[in-house]
Amino acid sequence: MVYVKWFFRIVVFVLLFGVLHYTLPQHDVVRVVNTYQERQDLNDWTRIFWAQPDDQSAELVNRDVQFIQTVRRKTWLFGFVPRESTGVMVYRNEDTGWSWPFYFKFDTASLQTEADDLRSTAENPKWAVMTHYGWRMELLSVFPNAVAIRQVDSPDYYPIPWFNIFFFVFLGVAWLFLRAMWRQFRERSIDPVVDSAGEAWESADQRFDDTRGRLRRWIDSWRRSPRR
Questions:
Q1: Residue 174 lies in a domain
Q2: Are the CB atoms for 101 and 58 separated by under 8 Å?
Q3: Tell me: the pLDDT tens digits for 178-187?
Q4: pTM of the complete model
């Protein structure tokens, strides 16, 4: 039973971590090298990794998607520790609208223009911070979605994930608050009922033992009575 409980906890933790890691904003220090538009087929299960289309194109199996090609500064520990090396990263640029995840992004055209303006070469680089969510999975042709971009002075710039910090602080405070409320509710409502049920069970058990004892003594008295 203990192993089943721990297995269930691990599964819940992995699922929760995956959802948060996919949804929460991430920040990459990048150099934009190109932007383009390409028609993508959205007729399989990987459609969940793309933005939801509007009502008029909800049934389409393919549509044009804008992309931003970059050279990204590599990091360790999910972006917390920067590295000296670089690698390529391609971002899609789609509106999220009013759907999940709730970034309320409606400025795809403006973001594409900003990315075009930041295009540069290795000889004369322009570095920027790309805010995005999602994962890059080359085997499934899945791309992270760019949310915002802004220019920085050098590739050594370290973006502090303020939103994620406040989110996890809020999550921790909310967890402690809900835990305290649950304990108070359990002490005031559940524990008295359980104690009362336990006392009632003990009283019933005691009465049963007394009745069984009297019955046994009555039977024994008949057994000891002399025969005439």
A1: no
A2: no
A3: 988 888 887 7
A4: 0.77
The C-alpha R_g of the chain, in whole angstroms, comes to 32
Domain count within the chain: 1
The Cα 38–Cα 52 span in angstroms is: 17
CA dist., res. 125 & res. 129, Å (int): 13
| Closest to 39 in 3D by CA, of 21, 62, 20, 22 | 62
State the residue range of the domain holding 92: 25-160
217 is a domain residue: no
Within 8 A by CB and 6+ apart from 163, the residues are 24, 25
CA separation for the pair 129, 30 (Å, rounded)? 6
Q: Does some domain include residue 71? A: yes
Buried b / exposed e along 53-89 (16+ C-beta atoms within 10 A): beeeeeeeeeeebbbbbbbbbebeeebeebeeebeeb
Residue 215 placed within a domain: no
Instruction: Return the number of other C-beta atoms located less than 10 Å from residue 183's C-beta.
Output: 11
* pLDDT, tens digit (0-9, with 9 covering 90-100), for 118-145: 999 999 999 999 999 999 998 888 999 9
